[in-house]
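Budget justification note: compute hours in this period were largely spent on complex prediction jobs such as the one shown. Inputs:
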Amino acid sequence: MQLTGAQALIKSLEQEGVDTIFGLPGGAILPVYDPLIDSTIRHILVRHEQGAGHMAEGYALATGRPGVAMVTSGPGATNIVTPIGNAHMDSTPLVVITGQVATGSIGTDAFQECDITGITMGITKHNFLVQSAQEIPRAVAAAFHLATTGRPGPVLIDVPKDVTQSMMDWWYPATVEEFDLPGYRPEVPLDEGAVARAAALIGQSERPVLYVGGGTLKSHAASELLAFAERTAMPVVTTLMARGAFPDSHNQHLGMPGMHGMYSAVTAIQKCDLLISLGARFDDRVTGKIPAFAAGAKVIHVDIDRAEFNKVRRADVSIQSNVACALRALDAAGATPKNLDGWWKTIRSWQAQYPLVYDEPTVDGPLRPQHVIEAIAAKASPGTIVTAGVGQHQMWASQFWKFEEPGTWVNSGGAGTMGFGVPAAIGAKVGRPERTVWCIDGDGCFQMTAQELVTARAEGIPIKVAILNNAYLGMVRQWQEMFYDERYSEVYLNADLPDYVKWAEAMGCVGLRARNLKEMHEVIEEANRINDVPVVIDFRTDSSEKVFPMVAAGASNDDIMVHPLQRGASK
Amino acid sequence: MSPEPYLGDVAHTPVRHHILSVLVENKAGVLARIAGLFARRGFNIYSLAVAPAEGHARFSRVTIVVDAESAPLEQIMGQLDKLVNVVAITDLAPSDAVERELLLATIKTNVANRTPLLDTLGDAGAAIIDVDPGAVTVMLAGTPGACDALEKALEGFAEVELHRTGRVALPRLGRAAKA
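Corresponding output:
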């Protein structure tokens, strides 16, 4: 069967089971948009290529399937660099297709030419510049294989215009060998010796902590984690990338560790004698000052990526494996710690003394942002997916929303990409249309990517956006207040400019505003009644609210600052 | 006050160096991927040599002398192994490897320096491979140490140009390399 390269590309995506592409056409990718008309694949036409990338990420994080984005060459390609970098930091499976100028024009500074494979070399798991139409099926199949196996990540396929326009004989790789990836070995046999050494360390442990990272979600190991944690009675902490991997309602769950983590989670790590890292990477936002991090603990490090071992913290035992396999092996080895009653008693006292708190809400406003999140959560249907931008609102969402299952928390962790929330919510809703999707956003983040609400309205994707509008780049303001002598440099945004309600309405959404407690409850009720168009709510929140607990950048986790309401109490 | 211009910080082979013999797919951009990885992770390359691998058009062999002071070898190998085009990495500790490199130098000659130059070349085992009335080009294929010694000995002569290839290496017979 003779096909054009463009037809082969679309057919290859169909072969991979792709149901949705987020994209925006342009000159170099034009040939591929023609056969798309005849395909069963749904295309979501975005308003900016960054939106396409974050939507694909939101889709991937909510469904566990790779997200697909397609854009043109030059500025289309550079506009999607931020989502690619974001996906690389968070190991999100993504396949990004970029148009490229014709092969004969590459290197001549042709119109809308840019070296996107060169630009993205350091922020993709791998990328391809396809040289002939016959190679398209292999490139697509290999890209999906690379994006989804081992440590997942973004893969970019750059396709020159003459390649998509020329003819090929249809074929599709049937086996991994035909992917032509002789250097790629995503799985290694489990090191039974390491498992036995880990089990022995667990057997000697009196104060263990399960430090659960994003790799636990990536390897779909939530049920193995629950079984292992319950059998061993160990305390569990879930990092920002692992929220939902273990139910927040479970009494062994201490919550999130790190810079804005729960006091009990941070302190349990500091005082533990064995830290079992499951698909986590000892990020600086978790460790604080590295030499002071869990200084008395032995470390078992489970990761699919061997380059994570001993990168930040030297492990006593490292197990190269996906988390699910490793937990099954540790279970089979009968790994069981000593009696943990004493350890739990200590942890319970920390939990009792330092729960999450915030100042009493005032009836007339401004609203407490934490209270807004709790009020939305209280009225949200079970299984609601929450997305966030980056900053104070993201930390409060992670702290105050209760996550019960994988795929319900979608955020930008490693890269910290402002503006992630709205497009990620759209992608999540496309991937799981039966779920309610709330984006908890900040006013600064919202302004970066809000144009995608036009996409949401046009494509019939009814997400709900809660802007915690404190008129500031809140996290920057918090740092300037605490560490720069309250010298507020370039952080004021103005709560009334833009008018978020009018802006929402101009984009075809329902726009609502809440300034006091009565309005807060009313608008949440109203938003929950609307299921056909996107809703945007402008919640006017208190600018002076800060995220606590907090460990200052570079400080030891022992020097955690609790909420002012809790200060003065003895530790 | 303006800071001093950067004059380089690795004058000679670092004390704790390792030789990585890296088999890669012979595809466009592979060298850029390796160089980019070393640059963004802050690993130092002391020398690098690339050539087609034995018997295959499909693979090339890259011999990288890395500064094991700049980053732990385990980290360098782990990150390198993640490059999809990297097929195999062999770590050769200097004591377990035979290493050779090629040095070429052009030296201005005159009546006065001809005899000492010939003595120097003779001592080093270097060969003259090109001659004209005012200069010679000499060659030494030898251990990095021999090349270092010749380079130093030639400092006393009026040198026009000196090039070194960077080393290639194979495991010493009877010693197993670590993959």
